[in-house]
Structure formats: C-alpha cells, structure tokens
Write a structure and sequence with these properties.
It is a single chain. With 108 residues, the protein is of the alpha+beta class. The protein has 3 helices and 5 strands, in the order E-E-H-H-E-H-E-E. It has a single domain, classed as Beta Barrel (OB fold (Dihydrolipoamide Acetyltransferase, E2P)). Strands 1-2-3-5-4 form a 5-stranded mixed β-barrel. A hairpin with a 3-residue loop joins strand 1 and strand 2. GO terms for molecular function: ribosome binding; rRNA binding; translation initiation factor activity. This is Translation initiation factor IF-1. Keywords: Cytoplasm, Initiation factor, Protein biosynthesis, RNA-binding, rRNA-binding.
Length: 108
Amino acid sequence: MPKEETLEFSGIVSELLPNANFRVKLIVNDGEYSADNKSSSQVGSELSKSDSELIADSISCLENSAVIAYTAGRMRKHRIRISIGDRVKLEMNPYDMTRARITYRFKD
C-alpha cells in the first residue's frame, strides 16, 4: 500500500509538553512546503484544481499557527535532544493539521 501524501514545514519549538510532545510555531514560506515522495509535476497532475486550491488555502491559514508535535522514532532511537528555540522540520498529514511529527532538528 503506498504511503499517503505528507506536507513538510519548518518551525520553532515554543513549549515543551509532557510525554515528549512539543508545541511548535510554524514558519510558512511560499516554497517551503512540499509533498513527500512526489515531484511537483506528479502532484499537480494527480490533484484536481479544487484539491490543490484547498491545500493552498489550508497552508495559508497555518502561517504563524502552533501545532502539537512528537518526535519521530529515529530521533528517539538516537536520543536527539530538542529544546525551546530549536528550529525543526515537521511532517503533517493533510487530514489532521493539528498534529505533526518532528523529523529533523537543524544545527543552528
């Protein structure tokens, strides 16, 4: 079964929550998000005009919003620490835009 489309964003950790959860403030730029495992030409051909407009509208609504994120399994496995103020890369499912998975911590 193929994996579903995920949206990638970057954000800044604003709060540490219990159970290895984090509140992350999203940073949304025009070219920042992308669909995982698909090129932009494939995504455009698979989505109808209304679907692509819907995704663009939902992304514009997310600008400067906060989501609850959890760490990915490999980050837990390698014990990568995340603290307040870290810039991270997130993956979000288009069906639930309130939860995200932290997949990378930038070395800034």
